[in-house]
């Protein structure tokens, strides 16, 4: 059971059925109450009409025996005087309740008073005959529910009570309207609902089940394909995208985008491992060869070459370790660095090179890791010095909320089509390969990654001298804090 209702289709069907069931119960109850109220009001209207008809007769007839009372089974009638005594009723009335007067046969002066010579004037104060025209029928009608038996037939009634005031006395006329039609209609409607509602719920549940099944069919296809991708480890495969514009189509597109990003990441990692292995193989092989030669022929040991290969290997290992930390999401520190003082200090620690370095430094403060920024500056200077003809210029300045560090050389520059490619890992342009004496193609990739981790950017464009100009933009301390 828990597995069944663990299905989205089953939960959707159950939810829709419950909502429809509650709506049907509420609507059915409202319909029944409205139907019953309307039919009860109709019975009350019939009772009120009959009571007022009899009340009008009380103002004109001389004797209660002259009253024209209904003789059918649908309208029991009682006429009661001010003392609560029954003075007139249907001839076939056998029992009544709900009017407050249980009598069904009038006493002296009632309906039988006609045989005894009684008349209306004998009840009351026996005032002048002309005063009969001064009577009044109350506009207000009071209603009660009860039952009556007429000629052996019992039924439920809606009773209307109309009061009549005349010089001959005060009377109350009770007339009933049958509730049989109300009960029959309510019973018929209730029976129809009890039969129709379950059928309607079954139809709703079936339609919901089928519609949900059809709607979730692409999800099943996506699940199956994802399982196949997981089993085969083939990230080149993609899940099917339905030809719709709904959430499932967006899910399929997002899944494929995720697979594409994952494939790119895995392929990048594989290339990284392959390139790193290749770059490590060269200095390790060279160092081993030199050591083996030195072991066999000590006089031939190239100590300077061994040290150079060891340094190259050490630098490459450090670059790979930094890239691994950056890929793992290492965040820069929150320390503050004045770029002008920082660049001046770093330049003072560098050994002299064949290329002259000029500095044009203005104070510009940033927040970040001093060691990572030092690696960026070192990589940019190394790259500029390898490609410059005679001059490298380092500039620091502020540009609004940004601190800017620029490193420019007077070399041949970077072709416009290669200006993004040089930031990829292990990428070296053909010209760089011929002149590079040990670079692995990681310096610029590390510099851009560090810039991105600091919330900044690193781009290359043409320098005024025609060479390459690398511009590092970093947010100031306030922008970083925000």
Automatic annotation (TrEMBL):
State the UniProt keywords alphabetically.
Answer: Kinase, Membrane, Phosphoprotein, Transferase, Transmembrane, Transmembrane helix, Two-component regulatory system
**Pfam families from the entry?**
HAMP, HATPase_c, HisKA
State where the protein is found: Cell membrane
Q: Which SUPFAM superfamilies match?
A: ATPase domain of HSP90 chaperone/DNA topoisomerase II/histidine kinase, Homodimeric domain of signal transducing histidine kinase
Top-level division of the source organism's lineage? Bacteria
Give the molecular function GO annotations. Answer: phosphorelay sensor kinase activity
- Annotated Gene Ontology cellular component terms: plasma membrane
Protein's recorded name:
histidine kinase
Q: What is the lineage of its organism?
A: Bacteria, Bacillati, Actinomycetota, Actinomycetes, Kitasatosporales
